[in-house]
């Protein structure tokens, strides 16, 4: 069916619905990109009151303990000394399902960690996968719509999903992970977590490095077979919630080793020149042989919430919450989320969501934000404004003190699709899988692919072929077992 040209909600034609406006090909993004802002704002307001993504979740409190000194990389006080402990709250979730959906569905898992530091809250908002489906936030609402329900039938649609993925080679890396055994983890305790994005750390000398965060489960990786995941979805749809709550209640406190990969800007530039991969592209990973994992500490969950709604449902995370000694990167998806997460919480929980105990910092804080709904802490009799420094400002030396980020290129929309390598890393992941896990991957993909039109199947198979010929051949064989004739 013919689709009319895309416009804004006010009817203004959209020149480019594929690429956000950025300062040079790498970004960062520009606030003047009203189409991006409008898409994200409307997307954040599509559900009342449920989260539009990560709606079904579980949470617990715990501690982070430093085991290795990383002060050479960051001045953040939570890392100041081996043995130092920081209180934490963690929320796990499925991504695409509603609040009543099953915990065992094939889906990425959210892995959001809040550190209640003496310098404010640090939120590390990630998933159980180190990569993602897309590299530009302007496509995020479109992508998530394909994972939700068909607007006519109100049913989940394999056709919508694979129509999007088959036209987006950048998704292949994450699709391979999703349909592997790791797409159905055995609860939340037996999976790894990742910050996924590239972040930065700044030390006391003002020197910056780029980092990726990893949480390695001490319980061991454990996944469910597709058949067992489907069985549990019917018999115990709250399986992961039950498992996490029960383990903590019984004193079997789950733990993760916290590690990070570190690289200077120069090292990343040299790596990109050698590999051709953009180190700030969320659809890519930094291979461990190029950037080894360095130990940092241990995360332990040891206390269940007293009230699910107050402490888990109303927990409001944002990757923009970074304490002094930490910073961001030109990762376009991260840049979009710095805006979108906080905006979603303003809508979903309220203007003063940070006043709620689970969201409030545990250090002294002071600002001039006043009034609005649920203004629990409203500043008392203190002034609600800051005076103007007539002779110019005098920085206090507190806060981030992040070094300036050099910008390159003219402001515009840059489309690198078709020129970038979206296949090698997906092929590398495929080749890492043992034989039985490869067969599981083929079978898991053949199920939904057998329900979509041939045109989409052929397009998706072509992507598998480019990642590895054995990948495409395996999926074709699994489709034939299901009675699908592949031309």
Automatic annotation (TrEMBL):
Q: Where is the Catalase core domain?
A: 7-394
A GO molecular function annotation here is: catalase activity
What residue spans carry the region label Disordered?
A: 1-25
Bias (Polar residues) ranges: 1-22
Enumerate the active-site residues. Answer: 54, 127
* Chain positions recorded as heme binding sites: 341
Entry superkingdom: Bacteria
Cellular component GO terms, alphabetical:
cytoplasm
Keyword annotations of the record: Heme, Hydrogen peroxide, Iron, Metal-binding, Oxidoreductase, Peroxidase
Q: Which reaction does it catalyse?
A: 2 H2O2 = O2 + 2 H2O
**Enzyme Commission number(s) of this protein:** 1.11.1.6
Keyword set includes Ribonucleoprotein? no
Q: Which PANTHER family match?
A: CATALASE
Task performed by this protein: Decomposes hydrogen peroxide into water and oxygen; serves to protect cells from the toxic effects of hydrogen peroxide.
Listed name of the protein: Catalase
Which species?
Rugamonas brunnea
């Amino acid at each position: 069916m013919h689709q009319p040209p895309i416009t804004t909600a006010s009817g203004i034609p959209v020149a480019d619905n594929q690429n956000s406006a950025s300062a040079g090909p790498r970004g960062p993004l520009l606030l003047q990109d009203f189409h991006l802002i409008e898409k994200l704002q409307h997307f954040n307001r599509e559900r009342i009151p449920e989260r539009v993504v990560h709606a079904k979740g579980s949470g617990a409190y715990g501690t982070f303990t430093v085991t290795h000194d990383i002060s050479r990389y960051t001045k953040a006080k939570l890392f100041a000394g081996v043995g130092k402990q920081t209180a934490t709250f963690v929320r796990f979730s499925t991504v695409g399902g509603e609040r009543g959906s099953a915990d065992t569905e094939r889906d990425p898992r959210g892995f959001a960690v809040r550190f209640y530091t003496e310098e404010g809250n640090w939120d590390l908002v990630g998933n159980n996968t180190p990569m993602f489906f897309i590299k530009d936030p302007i496509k995020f609402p479109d992508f998530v719509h394909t994972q939700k329900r068909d607007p006519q039938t109100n049913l989940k649609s394999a056709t919508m999903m694979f129509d999007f993925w088959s036209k987006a080679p950048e998704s292949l890396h994450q699709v391979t992970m999703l349909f592997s055994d790791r797409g159905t983890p055995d609860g939340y305790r037996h999976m790894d977590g990742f910050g996924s994005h590239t972040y930065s750390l700044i030390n006391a000398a003002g020197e910056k490095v780029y980092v990726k965060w990893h949480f390695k489960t001490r319980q061991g990786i454990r996944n469910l077979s597709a058949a067992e995941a489907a069985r549990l979805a019917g018999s115990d749809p709250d399986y992961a919630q039950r498992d996490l709550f029960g383990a903590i209640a019984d004193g079997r406190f789950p733990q993760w080793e916290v590690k990070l990969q570190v690289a200077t800007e120069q090292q990343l530039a040299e790596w990109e020149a050698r590999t051709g991969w953009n180190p700030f592209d969320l659809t890519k990973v930094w291979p461990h042989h190029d950037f080894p994992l360095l130990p940092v500490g241990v995360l332990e969950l040891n206390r269940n919430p007293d009230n699910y709604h107050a402490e888990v449902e109303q927990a409001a995370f944002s990757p923009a919450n970074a304490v002094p000694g930490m910073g961001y990167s030109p990762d376009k998806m991260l840049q979009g989320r710095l805006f979108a997460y906080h905006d979603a919480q303003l809508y979903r929980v309220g203007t003063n969501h940070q006043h709620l105990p689970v969201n409030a910092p545990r250090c002294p804080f002071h600002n001039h934000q006043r009034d609005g709904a649920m203004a629990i802490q409203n500043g008392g009799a203190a002034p609600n404004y800051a005076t103007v420094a007539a002779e110019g400002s005098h920085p206090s030396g507190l806060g981030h003190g992040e070094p300036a980020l050099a910008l390159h290129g003219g402001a515009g929309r840059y489309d690198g699709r078709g020129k970038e390598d979206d296949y090698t890393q997906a092929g590398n992941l495929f080749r890492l899988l043992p034989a039985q896990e490869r067969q599981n991957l083929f079978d898991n993909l053949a199920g939904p692919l057998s329900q979509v039109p041939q045109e989409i199947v052929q397009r998706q198979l072509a992507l598998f072929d480019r990642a590895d010929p054995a990948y495409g051949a395996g999926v074709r064989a699994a489709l034939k077992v299901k009675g699908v004739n592949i031309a």
